[in-house]
From TrEMBL:
GO biological process terms held by the UniProt record: immune system process
Record PROSITE patterns: ZF_RING_2 (PS50089), ZF_RZ (PS51981)
Domain RZ-type: from-to ranges: 441-519
Protein name in the entry: Zinc finger, RING-type
Alphabetical list of InterPro entries matching this protein: ZF_RZ_dom (IPR046439), Znf_RING (IPR001841)
Keyword terms, alphabetized: Cytoplasm, Immunity, Metal-binding, Zinc, Zinc-finger
GO cellular component: cytoplasm
RING-type domain residues: 141-199
Entry's localization field: Cytoplasm
Molecular function terms, GO-annotated: zinc ion binding
Length: 535
């Protein structure tokens, strides 16, 4: 029985910790022994800045909140979904009392302070109000409801001169000094303040409206940033659809395998692409002369579409190398099967690939790239001649052992990662030293491998400038947030590498040969690009 088939049937829980910090709920077989995890299904449950709980599967990248917006003022209520920026109210602010008056627009920061004079209104029971001047009167009387008013919750409720604030959002009345302290807690956190008794967001209480407006302004900036990111992703979708159509039209010549054996791959591709191609064709006919023709595709699908297109193009490049430079035989078919397997997984989940899946697929692409580079050399006439004729038996045995070890590492069912790839690279360098004139990998192949491995950054975006060199020229990669956050030592020469707070240690330079970057991520030279605007 095929060992791969047996591994696929393993029903033991995976239980590996994913990049999103959730525990994988798949099985060992379904997750390919941790090499390609199924999508994370854990509900996020994080509280968004707007105070809604995110119910999207997996917290790796929450989409903009799609609940109804909570914000309203005395003039109107926001009708957008929560994830869209609110339109500031242009009406005149209504906050005034006989001592103070705000003169700016409702949506702007008020130009008056809260009034601390006692309210002079008389309640229906003929007793004095316990609130402040110009604010809604708390529906409690210090005399008629003495027990309720003076019940100690925060400490000052039983003071004779205690003043209370009525929270219009939930109807609770809270002692003013305690509420001030409550509102000042976690002042640096971008999240709506809540009633200390019931956790209802405080949005309508004029006394704290300036704090609410500052928080809403910060939340609006977050929304704006999210929508800007979505616009950047969406702006290229017509080009993506054109590329998708071209790949569909030329599928047979681009596909790395034999379609007679792998028709199911084409079926998966068609399930994903045909609806999109149909939308695109309708859009072209409807808006033939309109450059602004649009096709509605959810943001998550656009991100996946970009990944699928790039992966398919990469496997096509490997197809050419495999067909031209690798000897026929069982291993050639094994290499092809590896890439077909990756395409199968990618096309199966093509509509909504998670960042974890993209990461896993790219690491397996890097593994495949190393296998191709190894067998390309083993198939070359130059290698065969040098091994047979130009090196002594001791070196020949050492080279054979190194190659056997590399093959075992590359075809292992263990997870492929940066450390394993570095081990492979080190062995390739050792063989190059023992066989003068042999180069295991071309610059183009190196970039293909490292492009695949550069997906483990925020949002799954392949950024440049994360491949670095220590002061002695040894290459390493910064993962996590993409900028240096901790110091370490070079595994080759033990000099300091990395950095702190996005500042690199002295001597670190960009490894341009890896991804074509001209400057380090988070360096001044890289960040200056944020201030260059195209016409």
């Amino acid at each position: 029985m095929d060992s791969e088939y047996v591994l696929d049937k393993c029903s033991e829980p995976c239980l590996q910790k994913l990049n999103c910090n959730d525990i994988c709920r798949g099985t060992c077989g379904k997750c390919k022994q941790g090499r390609l995890h199924i999508p994370c299904s854990e509900i996020c449950n994080k509280i968004n800045p707007c105070n809604h709980i995110c119910k999207f599967p997996c917290k790796e990248r929450c989409p903009p909140c799609n609940n109804k917006c909570l914000y309203s003022c005395i003039h109107s209520k926001c009708t957008n979904i929560c994830g869209k920026p609110c339109v500031p109210c242009k009406e005149k602010c209504s906050w005034k009392c006989r001592h103070l008056c705000c003169t700016v627009k409702c949506g702007e920061i008020c130009n008056r302070m809260p009034c601390y004079e006692p309210c002079d209104l008389i309640l229906e029971c003929k007793h004095n109000c316990i609130g402040f001047c110009g604010e809604p009167c708390p529906p409690l009387c210090r005399i008629c409801q003495k027990d309720e008013v003076t019940t100690i919750i925060f400490g000052n409720e039983d003071e004779p001169g205690a003043r209370f604030v009525y929270l219009e959002d939930c109807g609770h009345s809270v002692e003013s000094e305690a509420l001030e302290q409550w509102m000042n807690q976690n002042d640096k956190e971008i999240v709506l303040k809540q009633c200390p008794l019931c956790r209802t967001p405080i949005l309508k209480t004029l006394r704290f409206m300036n704090r609410v407006k500052v928080i809403l302004k910060d939340i609006a900036e977050i929304k704006e940033k999210q929508y800007k990111e979505q616009f950047v992703i969406s702006s290229n979708k017509i080009e993506m659809l054109q590329s998708l159509k071209s790949l569909s039209d030329n599928f047979k010549s681009i596909f790395i395998g034999d379609l007679r054996k792998f028709q199911h791959i084409k079926d998966l591709w068609d399930m994903f692409c045909k609806p999109l191609n149909k939308q695109f064709q309708i859009s072209q006919k409807t808006h033939k002369n309109n450059r602004n023709r649009t096709v509605h595709i959810p943001i998550k699908e656009i991100e996946s579409l970009d990944f699928v297109i790039n992966l398919f193009k990469s496997t096509s490049k490997y197809k050419q190398i495999i067909n031209e430079d690798i000897d026929d035989g069982p291993m050639k078919q094994t290499i092809i099967n590896h890439f077909v397997w990756l395409l199968s997984v990618t096309f199966t989940y093509a509509k909504e690939l998670s960042n974890q899946q993209k990461f896993d697929i790219n690491m397996e692409m890097a593994r495949g790239g190393r296998i191709v580079s190894l067998y390309k050399i083993l198939s070359s006439v130059e290698y065969k001649m040098k091994v047979q004729m130009n090196i002594d038996s001791t070196n020949k045995n050492e080279v054979k052992d190194l190659i056997d070890n590399m093959i075992d590492m590359l075809i292992s069912c263990k997870v492929y990662n940066l450390n394993r790839d570095k081990e492979i690279e080190n062995r390739m360098e050792l063989i190059e030293q023992k066989i003068d004139g042999i180069a295991f990998i071309s610059d183009e192949e190196r970039k293909m491998i490292h492009k695949a491995m550069s997906v483990n950054f925020p949002g799954g975006i392949r950024a440049q400038g994360h491949w670095c060199k220590c002061q002695n020229g040894h290459i390493y990669c910064i993962t996590e947030c993409g900028g240096p956050m901790e110091e370490s030592v070079c595994p080759e020469c033990k000099v300091k590498i990395g950095g702190r707070n996005h500042r690199y240690v002295s001597g670190v330079t960009v490894a341009s040969e890896m991804d074509g970057a001209r400057s380090l991520a988070w360096s001044s030279a890289n960040n200056i690009g944020d201030y260059i605007f195209d016409d």
